[in-house]
Structure formats: C-alpha cells, structure tokens
Amino acid sequence: MPPLYPPVAAPRRPTGVLGPRPYVGGARASGPLALGLLLGCTPPTPAGEAQFFGADRPVTVFDVRSGLVESGRVVGLTNLVVTVPRAPGGRDLWVQAPEGGAYGGLRLYLNSPRPELQPARGAVLNLVGTVGSRAGHTVLLIDETQGVREVGVGEAVPNRIGPLADYGPWIDSLVELDATVAGCGDAAGLQPLDLGARSAPLVLDPVRAGLRLGAGAQRAGLRGVLQATSGLTRLASQVAEDGGEDAAVGDSGAAADPAAGCAADLWSLRAAPREGWAQLDDLVLSAVGAGEAWAQPAGGGPGLRLRAEDPAALQGAVVGEALTAWGLLAAPRGVVELQLLRAGDRSPMGTAAPVAWTLEALAADPRLAGAVDGGDSGVSDSGVSDSGLDDSGRDDSGPDDSGAPTEGPTPAVSLAWASGALLQLGPLVTTAERAPGRVNSTAALPIDTRLYGGPAPAQQALLSVIGVLDVDLTETALLPRAPADLVVQAR
C-alpha cells in the first residue's frame, strides 16, 4: 500500500531563477533545437534535464504546481504519466510524476483541438507548454506550436491520503483513500464522500469508471484523480479497479451488494421523485424505440423512460423483457428518466407480459399517495380522474347527437406522475392531423405512431388505444407500439 502522506507544508522557493529559454543538458538552447531536444526528436535528453532553475536542478511538476514557476513561462517537462486521458471532444488531460508526491499532478489544456493527440492512460509523455491558469488553478497550456510526445508506457504511484482540511497539494494527482459513500448523488452522478471528521468536502465522480456504489457503501482503497472544477473537489475514478474493496464485511464473511444503498422502485420514485444513481429491479419493458425504451413494474403501473447514452445498453431489447437496470436518474426533458451509460447497465432476467392500466386505476392506487396533486392533476378528491373516463378507461360523458363521444376537459394524462405508464384509453375520436404520424383526439391527447413509423390514424376514427404515455417539457402524447395497439370500433 502506498505511504500515507501527512499534510504538506508550503513549498520554499529554491535558489536560482528560471532561465528565459530552455536549458538542455546544462547548455543553453533555443528555438527548434530546444523543442526537438525536449521532445526527444534528436538524441534523447536524460530524464529530467528539460529546463533548469539556474544551475541547480531541472524544472519539475512540483515547481509548476506549487507556484515556483510564474505564469506565462514556457517550460519543458519529461517522463510524466497520463492519469486521465482526454474525454471525447475534450481538451483536458491529466499527468503525474511517476513517483507521485505533493504537487506531483498537473492538468494539461490544449489550446487547439489537435485530434491526433490521444495518449492513453499510462502513456509516458514529454511536454513543452506555457504555465497558465484556468478557473483559478494552475495548468500547462499547450498550443499548436508546442509539443506532446509519447515516449513510453508507465504507471503513476497513487498518493495515499487521509482526511484533510485542504486538498490543495493533491489537486490533479492520483490518490487513494478510504471513505463511505454518503448518498446516491445528483443528476451529474456526483456522490458525496465521508472521510471522517475534519475533512474538507469531497465528491466521487464514478461515471468514467462505471462504479456502482450506493449510499452507505464503505470502500477501502478508493482511487481517482482529484480535480477542482465548478467549486467542487471531485475524486474522478477512471477504471473499475479504482472502486477499491468493500470495507464492511458482515458476520457471514460475504460482502454486501455495493449498489444496494441506491435501490429504488417506480412507485416510490413517483411519490417522491429524486435524481442521482438508482438500481431498479423487477421491471418489464413495455415499449422500445430507437435509443430509448420504457419500463414499468411487472404488474403495471407508473413507468419510466430508459435512455441509452451508450447504444449498446439497449441492443437486443424487446417488449416483454424482464430486467434489472442501473443508471442515472435525471430530468433533461422535465420528467425524470433513467440514463443507461454503458452496456452492462441493463440485465435481462427473462420475459413477462407488460400490463396496461387505465389512468383512473393508476391515479387511485394508494402507492401513489402524495404524488398526485388534486388541484392541478385533473384528479378529484376521491383520487379518480374527472377527465370523462370511467374505471374501464372508456368515456362516460355520453355521445352527442352524432353518436361520437363528446370532448371533455384535459385529462390527467398530461402529468409527470403518469409518464411512461402503459395505458389503455378509449373509445376516443381522432380529430385533426398535426404532423405525419401524429393526430389529435377527443381525449385531449395526441396519438403518435413514431415507435413503429406507421401513418397516423384516419381523422374522425373511433378508436380504443393502448400506448405508452410520453411526457416532456413541451407536449404529451400516447405512443402505440404497433398497428395492433389501435383498435377501430364501429360507430
């Protein structure tokens, strides 16, 4: 196990000054010669002989990160190990001196896109860049005239730390610590960590590593790179091994499910919506679209959109699949959905037929207590919708002289609490076509055939419909899954 580092005293400025141009091998060099030597394009420079404080010693990451090198200086650094590669489309990456230590990590920022620069985790780099600042933190700025050269493969030693009041010396460094996950996180997936008394706030960013850690999980040897962004200090884990080991083993000697602390069910999420990580068991897919699907409890009820951030997460998904899902609850469209970030977030568990409910049966279920606001929902004090639909899902408002059901008030199906449910509605009458595949209806609810790409039902058709209720910030619609979900009735 790496040594546990104590709090670090402020660095002292060494004797000597940084020369105005790179020094290589004790001799002054400038222009292309200096750049070539620093990047190893000519006979290799001995490790560490990139640039000097006078005649004393080469410039190191410690000098840059601790403020011994002033902003605006061009420096050369050698033999640094990549700890965080570039994200897709990003310009940041993190490196560290192989031996670690205080002020041993550094964030690099590419001033131009440079898509050819994609060093992997563990790559060893020689660098030339300009010391600068972003969001108040020291970085090495690299423009198109400066260099990043990959010279090998190595490994950075993680810095073992304990509870600290100030993470400053360890920002941008790979660290290892023991902590308890204190919550299921926010919509970005950041989870608070508890390191013990007198420790500054710290959050875990498990997204890149795909860690599944629920509230209360106790971890020994949790690893990641400390990053200071947006007013937060985050532990950014990179690979699955960064999750460490379970530090709370029960009497049986078996480790608990580390994700259990974020287990949830759709009924409770409707009654008390939240964001962050969630593990949902006993789901059935009620509808499948392109890059998205809808799931609900095995016996029917409130549903949830599953959105595949990784297309492989829903590959092979079919209606009727029973599954367990792990993902990130977020509300980018105004209604909470579960984002599946990678293929393993969906675990098929067999098959089960999805059950369609009427809106009234859903609204009256006592498990939704507190989720339905009678003042705004179109649901009466009895918990039954006043939309003009009876318990069977059929219109009880009576036909007009033409024999068609009369138009009633906007039904409760426009509410977020019913979003994602597989519903049975009708009879209703289609009215004006709004767009290809989309038609209005007397249920004050558009019918949209986008899940199977068929034409919209004919206008003035009398229908019974089964479909998934799709709700977003702008409009609500009922999505039949196939032509068989539209049953035309005789007038």
Could you walk me through the main structural features you see in this protein, from its secondary elements to its overall organization?
Strands 25, 26, 27, 28, 29 and 30 form a six-stranded antiparallel beta sheet that branches. Strands 5-6-7-9-8 form a five-stranded mixed beta barrel. Strands 12-13-14-16-15 form a five-stranded mixed barrel. The model is unreliable at 1-10, 12-55 and 373-414 (pLDDT under 50). It starts with 22 loop residues before the first strand and ends with a strand. The chain has helices spanning 31-39, 61-65, 266-271, 359-364; strands at residues 23-24, 27-28, 52-53, 57-58, 74-84, 92-96, 105-110, 123-134, 137-142, 148-153, 159-160, 174-181, 191-194, 202-205, 218-229, 232-236, 245-246, 263-264, 276-288, 292-297, 304-308, 321-330, 337-340, 346-351, 422-435, 438-441, 447-448, 462-471, 476-479, 486-488. With 491 residues, it is mainly beta. A hairpin with a 6-residue loop joins strand 20 and strand 21.
Task: Point out poorly predicted stretches.
Answer: 1-10, 12-55, 373-414
Structural class: mainly beta
**DSSP strand tally:** 30
Q: What characteristic shape results from the CA principal axes? A: elongated
Give the biggest sheet.
6 strands, antiparallel
Ends: how far apart? 78 Å
Query: Overall mean pLDDT score?
Result: 81
Instruction: Give helix % range.
Output: under 10%
State the helix count: 4
Beta fraction of the residues? 35-45%
Rg to the nearest angstrom? 30 Å
